[in-house]
Amino acid sequence: MSLLSTLQSGQELSSGQIREFSALLLDEGVSDREKFDLLKALSDKGETAAEITGFVESFLEKARRPDLASATDGAPTIDVCGTGGDKLDLFNVSTTSMFVIAAGGAKVVKHGNRGITSKSGGSDVLEELGIPAAATDEQLRQALEKANVCFLFAPHFHPAFKAVVNVRKALAEEGIKTIFNLIGPLLNPTSPRYQMVGVTMGERTADFAEILNNLGRKQVFAVTGHTATGESVDEFSNLGLNKLYLVKEGQEVQCRTLSPQDLGLEEASLEDLKGGGPAENAETLIGILSGEITGPRRDIVLLNAGAGLACCQIVESISEGIALAAELIDSGMALGKLRAFQAVFQ
Q: Which of 229, 251, 322, 341 has the greatest count of CB atoms below 10 A from its CB?
């Protein structure tokens, strides 16, 4: 039975079929139409946790893995990212937060891409700040050593992204979420020890925690935030409730529901957090790190940075992390990490 027939009949793909599917997606000689039909059929069927794990393992086998061990110096390594796709067009919260987490002593190895379903992805806003996507491995090491952060531009490490970029855009234009909306945050080629991931599809959040735990993370925070009206947010949100699935290495997944008020924060409105293009979002990022922007925008960064600091066990709780994050911004240390990152490329 062909891959398309298997998917259209609602059957789960075997490990061999996942490898076949992965190879097909990597093959630039296969038509975009065929890839479109297969990815849509997989989306229509619904990807199982086992299938997601299989795709992740298949692509990681083919990933180019930079050697950054010499630059981590024994510090905890963490990725902070989201699946995207919430269509809320917030400013770049996780990219802003990573400098605060770095100031707290973690080594942030952020894996990301250009904006596909948003006006400004992590790569877009960083390029606006003078940090190119096309960093060499030596520049990545220097950035980690001097700034505690680096950005891994996904297409440089995963051939599949180049081969399906046009198909992904076509599917996104039709509002179809594919396996690539799911696996992007799972494909960090450095396999960091810790990971915090925001998941737009709330029914998938527990799967993300489980899959990342199976991939060897020491602790995982997988969260779906919400707006006041229940829309999903792919990061910790000060707009409404947060459903957090956390798991420590080798243990069972735990679930917690947290409101902004539980963490000492005021509930914000969606309009408070709206972003724009890369230039506008870069100004927001600098404004928050410099202390010039306060209120809800600062609060959502404190929340996500605080959660990241808790995830990688620099602090014991998210509340402690929020307090530390405020100190790291107010002291200028967080802005200092941004400036040190920029200096690597000047």
A: 341
CA proximity to 34, closest of 15, 10, 55, 7: 7
Answer yes or no: is 273 within a domain: yes
For residue range 165-219, what is the model confidence (pLDDT) as tens digits?
899 889 989 989 888 878 889 999 999 999 999 999 899 999 999 999 989 999 9
| Angstrom distance (rounded) from CA 196 to CA 21 | 28
Q: Are 213 and 225 in contact (CB under 8 A)?
A: no
Cα–Cα nearest to 101, from 343, 333, 342: 333
Burial class of residue 231, CB neighbours in 10 A (0-12, 13-18, 19+): middle
CA distance 194 to 94: 15
Using an 8 Å Cβ cutoff, are 243 and 257 in contact? yes
pLDDT in tens, 90-144: 999 999 999 999 999 999 999 987 765 455 677 889 999 999 988 999 999 999 9
- How many domains does the chain contain in total? 1
Domain CATH code at residue 332:
3.40.1030.10
As a whole number of angstroms, the distance between CA 279 and CA 232 comes to 25
Amino acid at 145: E
- Residue pointed to by tokens 């000047």: 346
What residues contact 31, with CB distance under 8 A and at least 6 apart? none
Domain with 309, as residue range(s), is 73-154+190-343
Residue 52 lies in a domain: no
Query: By three-state DSSP, how is residue 159 classified?
Result: helix
**Alpha-carbon distance 79 to 194, whole Å?**
7
- Measured CA distances, 243 to 197, 203, 310 (Å): 12, 11, 16
Partnered with residue 256 across adjacent β-strands are 244
CA dihedral over 306, 311, 315, 319, signed as positive or negative: positive
Query: Are 231 and 212 spatial neighbours (Cβ–Cβ below 8 Å)?
Result: no
What DSSP line would sit under 114-130, residue for residue?
A: --SSSS--HHHHHHHTT
Bridge partners, residue 242, by sequence: 225, 258
